[in-house]
Amino acid sequence: MRTRRLPPRLRRLVLAALLAAGGLAIAFPVRADAIRCRPMWDFSVEVDGSYPKEALFYQSDSRGKYFIDIPTCKSGLLLDLFAKRIVAVPRTLVSRVDGGLQVSDGASTGATAYAYSLDGGIIQFQAEEKKVRVVPALQRPPLTGQVSLDDLLADRAEYREGMKLYRPDAEAVAVIGKFPKPVEIEAFFATWCPHCKEYMPKFLRVMQDAKNPRIKLTLVGVPKGFGESPGPWKEHNVTGIPTIIVMIDGKEINRMGSGPGPGPEVELAETLKALR
Amino acid sequence: MSEAAGTPPREPAARRVLAVASRLGRVGLGIVFLAAGVLKALDPAEFAHQMSGYGLVGPGIAAVAAPLLIAFETTLGVALLVGFSTRATSAAAAALLLFFIGLEAYGLAKGRTESCGCFGPYVQRTPGQVIAEDLLFLALAGLAFLGARARPRDPSSPPLRPSRAAAVSVIAVAVLSLGFALASPSLPIDALVTGLSVGKSLSDLGIAGKVPADGRRLVGLLDLADPGAAAVAERLNALSGQAGAPAVLVLTPSSEEEKAAFLWSAVPDFEIQAVDRAVLKRLYRRLPRFFVVDGGRVVAVLDGAPPGPEDLLSLEAS
What confidence tens digit (pLDDT) does each residue in A63-105 have? Predict the structure, then answer.
């Protein structure tokens, strides 16, 4: 049987095209299986017993897949709940996109994989000789006693991000910002309390936006079972959290935060307006 | 001065006032106990949950004790209303109220701020308000007791005994109220008892910030710690994969820890939002419960098992 051969020039052209395609494939890995990930602030990543600020947990758009980014690890870590393993993803396959990440999932075959175990809501595993735990944020050891705003925000991503997302009522914030008398606010809250996780970032955003130097804010973290343990919450008869105590000239004017109602800025502005 | 022959001696004014006050106190207290029993009977599981919340009994004992206490309160209410053994019933009511006051004070000392559930889950009061209220009811019980004791008795009349009809009716109420408390969870009265019904807006339901107002969504109320939750998730996952099916959103009163454990084990293909139990409880008696929201309003409530695509398609058609 006679086979028809391609002309030499065309053969060279096809060969060049194949070589170029191969080169491009090596330089730019195929992103056909790329998944989009966005940070999940309800979880904290514990690495060797501490919570590095930059270590983040991401939810992906692919069901059952989550990404764990620990900057001190050489690779990113892709949690696959269906395959019940965590796969190391080379950093070259991870790119930052719109406040999240794009992770190539195609390179997972043959990559290093780690087993993980579950302890209730906590995922734990060992990767690159690091003991890693993914812990629901409310289950982390609580911050107790007086804490500065900077320390709180540095330690708790869920508060930091909650503040960024909240859009307070500008008119109410202006009222708070312009209030002429010195005001003392003591905020009792708990880092283990789900209601505080929703309320406190809003309240802190209001304080940040109001920028009123006459308002002195004191943050007090309360422990679990605070009803039975001594502390400033006992002195102020705090029975529920969060409790925001507003004081002028050392006299208590109002308590906020314990029940459903308008945004914290509206409630605080109403309180201050009534004093004018 | 002597009384005319055949005319009964006139009661002193103070005694007459006491008799009227006693009767009012007895009837008022009877209404209170009857209302408390009936309202609790609408959702006995919630009452059991509230009982165990005090930490004195576990959930198992509370589940058994709740229907019994509901039946007791209802019976006591009816007995007071019909004037059955007034001294005994008012004394029993006073003893029960003292127990409730002690329990609230104990809860308050422990830092408890939740509602007591004295009038079921749909009446919310603080422990302090409950104690004040119970003290008032205790005064009513005292009046009922004193009035019954002070009533003069004609020595020639036969000894006071409760009528047979009253005794039979009180026993019947005891049996019926226990039966109602036990059967209540299975009765189709959710639409009447809970705040969830067709036409309500997300704000009416108290979940405006949790469920997006735009588009059509199937909203599930689910206890993630329930052993059946994984099976529900499987069904909802299948639904999420169907073309044209509405987006699925689950609201749960479960804790963050339970939510996390559920995420890792059931691998849900839908969004889950934790909602304060006090807010969510107004929408259900038993979980799971489902409803469809369109443009921020409830367009259908589906009780029982999670709906399949065919259920939702029939809703679209209607």
Answer: 999 999 999 999 999 999 999 999 999 999 999 988 899 998 7
- pLDDT at residue B127 tops 80: no
Write the pLDDT tens digit of every residue in B78-123.
Answer: 999 988 888 899 999 999 999 989 888 887 777 666 666 677 666 7
Interface-testing mutation among B263, B270, B273, B280, with chain A (most A C-beta atoms within 10 A): B263
Mutation target to probe the B interface, by most B beta carbons within 10 A, among A58, A81, A165, A192 is: A81
B54 CA to chain A: closest CA distance, Å?
14
Q: Which of residues 204-223 of B touch A (CB under 8 A)?
A: 206
The yes/no answer to whether this complex scores an ipTM above 0.85 is no
Give me the residue spans of the domains in chain A.
Answer: 34-137, 145-274
Q: Which two tokens stand for residue A102?
A: 């794009």
Compute the average pLDDT of residues B129-150.
85
DSSP category for residue A129? T
Q: Can you state the percent helix, strand and coil of chain A, rounding each to 5?
A: 30, 35, 35
CA distance A58 to A66: 6
Give yes or no for a contact between B273 and B243, defined as CB atoms under 8 angstroms apart.
no
Q: Which CATH number fits domain B191-317: 3.30.70.20, 3.40.30.10, 2.40.50.140, 3.30.10.20?
A: 3.40.30.10
Q: What is the pLDDT of residue B1?
A: 41
- What CATH code is assigned to A145-274? 3.40.30.10
Q: Which of A43, A49, A41 is nearest to A135 (CA)?
A: A43
Query: Taken in order A134, A136, A137, A143, is the CA torsion positive or negative?
Result: negative
Answer for the pair B86, B26: CB distance below 8 angstroms, yes or no.
Answer: yes
User: pTM for the whole thing?
Assistant: 0.75
Q: Give the Cα separation of A122 and A138 in Å (integer).
A: 11
Tokens 């489902």 -> residue:
B290
Q: Rounded to whole angstroms, how far apart are CA atoms B86 and B287?
A: 41
pLDDT tens digit sequence for B46-64: 889 888 888 788 889 999 9
- Is residue B174 within 8 angstroms of chain A, CB to CB? no
Q: Which of A121, A136, A240 is the closest to B113 by Cβ?
A: A240
One-letter amino acid for residue A28 of the chain:
F
Contacts of A40 in chain B (CB under 8 A): none
